[in-house]
Amino acid sequence: MTVGGATVEFEKIRKTYGDFVAVDDFTLTTEPGEFVTLLGPSGSGKTTVLNMLAGFTDATAGDIRVNGQSVLSVPTEKRNVGMVFQHYSLFPHMSVLDNVAFPLRMRSVARAEARDRALKALAMVQLESTADRMPDQLSGGQKQRVAFARGVVFEPPVLLMDEPLGALDLKLREAMQLELKQIHKTVGCTIIFVTHDQSEALTLSDRIVVMRDGRIEQVDTPNRIYDRPANKFVAEFIGQTNFFALESEPSTGAGNLPELGSSIPLPESIDARAGGDWWVSVRPEKILRIAEGAERGINFDAAIDEALFLGNEVHYQASLPGGRQLQFREQRGPDTPLLARQAAVRLGFDYSDAIPVADTHPASA
Amino acid sequence: MRFKSTVLSGAIALGLAASPALAEKKIVVSGSGGGLAKVMTAIYDKPFTKATGIEIRRVASTNRVSLLAGMEKTGRVLWDVTELSGPEFPLSVAKGFVRALDWNLIDPDNRLPAIARDKYGVVAASFSTILAVRTDKLPKGKKMKSWADFWDVKTFPGPRALRNRPVENLEFALLADGVPTADLYKVLATKAGQDRAFKKLDQIKKHVVVWWKTGAQPIQLLSDGEVYYTSAFNGRVTKLAKSGTPAEIVWNGGALALAYYAIPKGAKNIKEAHAYLSALALDADRAAAFVKIVPYPGFAPGLYGKIPASMGKVLPTHPDNVKVQFKLNVGFWVKNTEALQERWDAWLLK
Amino acid sequence: MPAHSFRLLSLGIGIVKLLRSSDWLIVPGVLLLAFFFVAPTVEIALSSIFDEGLTGKHFERFATKGAYVEVFRRTLVRSVWIGILCVLIGYPIAYFIVHRSLRTQVFLMLLILVPLWTSILIRTYAWMVVLGREGIVNNALIWLGLIDKPLRMMFTTGAVYVAMIQILLPIAVIACYSAMTEIDRTLPRAAKVLGASPWKAFRHVFLPLSLEGALTSFVIVFMLSMGFFITPALVGGRKDAMLANVIAHNVEQLNWGFASALALLLLVATIIVIVVVRLLANRFVGVRSVGMAP
User: Is the pLDDT assigned to residue B149 strictly greater than 90?
Assistant: First the structure.
């Protein structure tokens, strides 16, 4: 079962409810077959975007095109997009087979063919044997897979997924993520996936769209989002990080980190005096314990507060002499000693690991 | 005054007034509740207690036959006197729930007309099912005078109503067919007479738009102009006319129904109950006061001398009205209702 | 161990078990139901066949005398129709309401409920004002010159239908509405995005899921109308009496046995209709799927 994915273009989409702006200036173009995740906290407008694409909600302004054709005036049932809902939304009065065959029957596919294709879709999610059961006889993970089979059985060029794994427990969710990735490879349709879970987004996506208050903060691949966050919000929302206040030195073009008593060279593109609040983001795994004489770009002393032993890795919380806290992580070899509480350590990181980010929303900072 | 001496002599004859035990006597009277009970208390009960020392406790009751049946079963007779409506009275008599009265105690001078006296009951009130007419709907210069006129749809066109039951209607049909009042129940007792009544009813059936069930209905229908001619209860028609609707009673051929007071079998205060019945039946002053409020009079001798003529002539027991009406033979109906009702129901559906 | 002491023992164990579980909480409810519902029903059933000894005379009277069978048939047919009509009218109203905003829903349901607080008698009389010879409809028609003599609308079978439907409709709406509010709102949405036209989404998803409510609403309206008598007596014509009228009449006449027999027949007929409706509904399951199930 292979489907060609579609190009989906959002052009300056805006959605308001009275005075409330739910989505604003949303512009995005997907590649055919791409897995794009809309990521953001609840209320960030990601589900509204999905609903506008599905046709549940009208856009106030802007345009949405699938393969170059505007869909805004097309009724939901003719948009030919698949959808998987957060709570599965399986039809409780139909058997699993009937549920999966539903989109085909609605498209007037002959009964026998519909049956064949529905069974194939069920086989793809390894649930062929449950065809005759009713949805309430399935486990949560099974329901999710049936919903997925139903969403793709009619080979839609676009599949929308609205927090589809949100109702599953952690272990099942991780298993489902892997399965989803594989099935996506087989099916090949464009997937637009909504979640508020950043690790899920990082695992699954070709590209991530980070949203906040109805606007796009950053669109990029997972590793770029992680390594080069566009602003403080993205850096904070994706993964864990340490922020240090950044003040620029006009004479040298260097940035001062007063909490660490050091400074870093700043690229010319960044003028920390020009606007607002600047910080550097340093991921915990980039901060290293350093031995005497093996100094990095930035070096400082700290005392261990807490150690979390995770087997191959230890997560530390430490305090600077001024009392400010930070996190760092350490990969363990067989002989790496565990640092005791109160132990004094010397830590450091490279200039390249300090990412200057601006707090672009001072109001909500 | 003759009346006073009668009561007094009656009381003395009973040995009631003088007896000190009497002052503590109390009798229980079952009857209508609500406003009517208040009227009864004010007009009859309080003066009675004053005169005799017998206290009256009134209890409101409905479905009295079943209550009497219950008392009979349990042996706990709670009432000394009870009202019984037209149908309740013969039923209670037939079932033996009430005792024969001692008329020497109630009316020693024999002043009540025969119609007011029954072996088991004293007439408490009367009402009549009469022909009521919307006078403004009558053809010009015509006047409806009888059930024969009611049947005459050529002379008197327009929608009509009758009560949905064979009782009264079969009598009305026979009257319309020319049977004299005196022979009514003789004719009705025969199969041929019943056939004759139903045949006559066939003629009017399709002109009767409503077969009413409750007493309020025909009044509403007259008032709304929904029907022009209908059978109805007399008191309600008088009230309707007073409120401004041009409605009139045709007494001729009216069915006079009587309600009774009776003493339940097994009642404990027989003598006192008789004294109370006597006061109810004979006192014309009180009857006059009562009738001014409630238009359902009994037969208290001299009543019509004590009220205005205009009021008297719309009451069912006025001598002129009694003359042209027939007394509803409840005994006949208790015996024949089941069969005739079944025939009636089937007939209505045809 | 003798049989009776064994029985006594198991009864004792049963009671102890009952008291140890929390099931005993339902005991007062069961007693109340037994006392106020089961006992009177049994009493009615008994008094219809015992009248100074075992007798079938009441049922014989029903079958052979008067017009009882006809009245019974009419009561049944009319109640079924009233039930169907109330559902056909009430269902779309409930559908409309349930698709409004929550605040509007509350307001509209209040409007639906208000008539229920008004006495049936008053509502019935109100119809006389509307449908009478000198009523609103006739006056309007005459004023418009459409007719020159008033039409007979009151005291007809049509008037009985109109008045009974008006009285029972709120109940039908409430039953449908409450079933519809139980439906997951994303299901019709899911149907649409999966390719169902609004009609097909309704037919294959909303309708089957709300069918239960429609049936409940039919059953309630049907049961209530089987026992109706004030309205038909007041607004109907001579052929519009219902069985309840006949029962009331016989109670007045102290024909307890016959009244009980009629009441029993009414009860049995009601139960039969409800069971038949249930069975038909279960066969209806075909509606519920898109026909893939074996």
Answer: yes
User: Are the C-beta atoms of residues B298 and B317 closer than 8 Å to each other?
Assistant: yes
What backbone torsions phi and psi does residue A66 show, to the nearest 5 degrees? Answer: -115, 125
Residues in C touching B220 (Cβ below 8 Å): 125, 128
Q: What is the pTM of this model?
A: 0.77
* Residues C197, A82: C-beta atoms closer than 8 Å: no
* CATH superfamily membership of C60-118+167-292: MetI-like (1.10.3720.10)
Average pLDDT over residues C239-243: 86
Half-sphere exposure of A47 (CA within 13 A, CB side): 11
Say yes or no: C241 contacts chain A, CB-CB below 8 A: no
CATH H-level, domain A8-230: superfamily: P-loop containing nucleotide triphosphate hydrolases (3.40.50.300)
Cβ contact A195:A205 at 8 Å: no
What local confidence, expressed as pLDDT, does residue C241 receive?
83
At residue A289, φ and ψ (nearest 5 deg) are -80, 130
The upper half-sphere exposure of residue A362, i.e. CA atoms within 13 Å in the direction of its Cβ, equals 5
For chain B, what is the domain count? 2
Q: What whole-number distance in Å separates Cα of residue B160 and Cα of residue A105?
A: 63
What is the DSSP secondary-structure string of B207-267? TEEEEE-STHHHHHHHHHTS-SEEEEEHHHHHHHHHTT--EEEEEEEEEEEEEEEE-BTT-
Contact check, Cβ <8 Å, B348/C239? yes
Q: How far apart are alpha carbons B40 and B261 in whole angstroms?
A: 13
Which pLDDT score is estimated for C236? 87
Specify the pLDDT at position A362.
Answer: 41
Residues B209, B278, single domain; the answer is no
The CATH number of whichever domain residue B9 belongs to comes to 3.40.190.10
User: Which sequence spans correspond to the domains of chain C?
Assistant: 1-49, 60-118+167-292
Residue B216: closest C-alpha in chain C: C234
Q: What is the pLDDT of residue B9?
A: 46
- Per-residue pLDDT, C284: 65
pLDDT tens-place string over residues A301-331 = 899 999 898 888 899 999 998 888 999 998 8
CB-facing half-sphere around the CA of C253: CA atoms within 13 A: 21
Average pLDDT in chain C:
85
Residue in chain C closest to B67 (alpha carbons) equals C254
State whether residue A103 sits within 8 Å of chain C by CB.
Answer: yes
Reference A91, options C191, C213, C196; nearest CA is C191
Tens of pLDDT along C195-225?
A: 999 999 999 999 989 988 899 899 999 999 9
DSSP code string of C182-205? TS-THHHHHHHHTT--HHHHIIII
* Tokens linked to A364: 């909500």
Residues across chain C: 294
pLDDT(A29) > 80:
yes
> Whole domain around residue B92: which residue ranges?
2-125+258-318
**B241 and B343 co-located in one domain:** yes
Q: How far is it, in rounded angstroms, from Cα B75 to Cα B144?
A: 53
End-to-end Cα spacing for chain C: 55
Q: SS in 3 state form for C10-23?
A: HHHHHHHHHHHCHH
Are B206 and B345 contained in the same domain?
Answer: yes
Q: Are strands A247-249 and A242-245 parallel, antiparallel or unpaired?
A: unpaired
Question: Which among A92, A111, A151 has the least Cβ separation from residue C291?
Answer: A111
Residue A116: how many CB atoms within 10 A of its CB? 14
How many Cβ atoms sit within 10 Å of the Cβ of residue A331?
10
So what's the ipTM on this one?
0.81
Q: Which of C51, C58, C238, C247 to mutate to test the interface with B (most CBs of B within 10 A)?
A: C238
Out of 2.40.50.140, 3.30.360.10, 3.60.21.10, 3.30.420.10, the CATH code matching A240-358 is 2.40.50.140
Do residue B9 and residue B120 come from a single domain? Answer: yes
Q: How far apart are CA B11 and CA B14, in angstroms?
A: 5
